[in-house]
């Protein structure tokens, strides 16, 4: 239901759902998950969570709807958070909290960027949004920041959270390294594909009258990018 809720909701609903409500769910798992959970239950749950990261990534590779692509990406990242919280170790819980904060900022930023393109093109199809670098050159820098943080480029906080989760999962079961590395690779592929498709190429006939970014839109993007930069420079702000 989550991708459908993201796609059908207005932009404010999508941003609040990605940045706040999903994090409340992760917080609830951290607070309510029992510390003495049996291995017979934790094995299939973590297996489904890590497998979900791969399946949502493969779904993103073939999505033509930009908002649906970002929604499935959000589901994949929260699969890592769910698998980390089930292990119930201090290192995994710390990684889950870091990734939740990083994902909340990144996913909300991506949804807002997608809505800006939708307001100008009246479509969510990737093929109809190409060449936006020529119409909105300043927004391309924010697209680059959002795409690179989504794929966990070093030294962003997204990478720190994912590395902590991957390390704890590997310590719990070495087999999980295959799932997590494959999921991270697929995430990098579709994030770069999303950026290249929307920004490169020739403008479509319907997009040639696209107006540039407004001050309020640039301010919204700055309020997303600035916390990501500050947390990357000083991770202790989270604690």
UniProtKB/TrEMBL annotation:
Subcellular location: Mitochondrion membrane
Reactions mediated catalytically: a ubiquinone + NADH + 5 H(+)(in) = a ubiquinol + NAD(+) + 4 H(+)(out)
Residue ranges of domain NADH:quinone oxidoreductase/Mrp antiporter transmembrane in the record: 1-187
A GO BP annotation: ATP synthesis coupled electron transport
Transmembrane region(s): 12-30, 42-61, 68-91, 97-118, 139-157, 177-197, 218-238
Enzyme class: translocase
Membrane topology category: Multi-pass membrane protein
Assigned keywords, A-Z: Electron transport, Membrane, Mitochondrion, NAD, Respiratory chain, Translocase, Transmembrane, Transmembrane helix, Transport, Ubiquinone
Principal subcellular localization: mitochondrion
Keyword Secreted attributed: no
Top-rank taxon: Eukaryota
GO CC annotations, alphabetized: mitochondrial membrane
Protein EC: 7.1.1.2
Entry's Gene Ontology molecular function annotations: NADH dehydrogenase (ubiquinone) activity; NADH dehydrogenase activity; ubiquinone binding
Protein family per UniProt: Belongs to the complex I subunit 4 family.
Function: Core subunit of the mitochondrial membrane respiratory chain NADH dehydrogenase (Complex I) which catalyzes electron transfer from NADH through the respiratory chain, using ubiquinone as an electron acceptor. Essential for the catalytic activity and assembly of complex I.
Protein name, as recorded: NADH-ubiquinone oxidoreductase chain 4
Taxonomy of the source species: Eukaryota, Metazoa, Chordata, Craniata, Vertebrata
């Amino acid at each position: 239901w989550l991708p459908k809720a993201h796609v059908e909701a207005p932009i404010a609903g999508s941003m609040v759902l990605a940045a706040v409500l999903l994090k409340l769910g992760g917080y609830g798992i951290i607070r309510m998950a029992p510390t003495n959970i049996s291995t017979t239950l934790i094995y299939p749950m973590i297996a489904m969570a890590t497998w979900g990261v791969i399946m949502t990534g493969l779904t993103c590779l073939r999505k033509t709807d930009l908002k649906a692509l970002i929604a499935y990406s959000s589901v994949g990242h929260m699969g890592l958070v769910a698998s980390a919280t089930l292990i119930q170790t201090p290192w995994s819980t710390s990684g889950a909290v870091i990734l939740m904060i990083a994902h909340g900022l990144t996913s909300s930023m991506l949804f807002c960027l997608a809505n800006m393109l939708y307001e100008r093109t009246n479509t969510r199809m990737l093929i109809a949004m190409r060449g936006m670098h020529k119409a909105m050159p300043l927004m391309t820098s924010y697209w680059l920041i959002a795409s690179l943080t989504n794929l966990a480029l070093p030294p962003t906080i997204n990478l720190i959270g994912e590395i902590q989760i991957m390390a704890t999962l590997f310590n719990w079961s070495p087999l999980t390294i295959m799932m997590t590395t494959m999921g991270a690779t697929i995430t990098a592929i579709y994030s770069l594909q999303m950026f290249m498709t929307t920004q490169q190429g020739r403008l479509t006939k319907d997009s040639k009258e696209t107006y540039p970014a407004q001050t309020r839109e640039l301010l919204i993007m700055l309020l997303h990018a600035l916390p990501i930069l500050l947390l990357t420079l000083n991770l202790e702000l989270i604690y």
